[in-house]
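Hi all, a correction to my earlier message: I attached the wrong file for VOC domain-containing protein. Here's the right sequence:
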Amino acid sequence: MADFTFHHGGVSVPSLDEAIDWYGRVLGFTVEKRFPIAAARAQAAMLRKGPLRFELFEVEGAAPLPDDRRHPPSDLKTHGNKHVAFRVADLEDFLIEMAAKQADIAFVVREAFGKGCFLRDCAGNLIEFVEEPDG
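and the right structure:
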């Protein structure tokens, strides 16, 4: 079987500059590089935080994110990619930090199967954060 590792997640946003600011201010990502994608009529940026990468696209004439894609339970009712998820050491500490940064906390899960939350970025895209016990 071919060997591979995760490289990045990507989202389309209405304003590349606003999204770069949000991902930097709220989640601590920095710009690794910016580049045009002529075939898609897009401007893009690869963001990085340690080994994590996230790609943002501002595409000319793109449609806004539909409302049902902004809430995790309703988003699951549409086929396709749903979100990327990052691991956090302590969900409660993470939620306090995100509230202090006025992040849009879309949904919090505290169930027997696990704990986590979803944030909406500045364009409404969902990003999941999971507290997973070691071991």
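Sorry for the mix-up. The longest strand covers residues 30-37.
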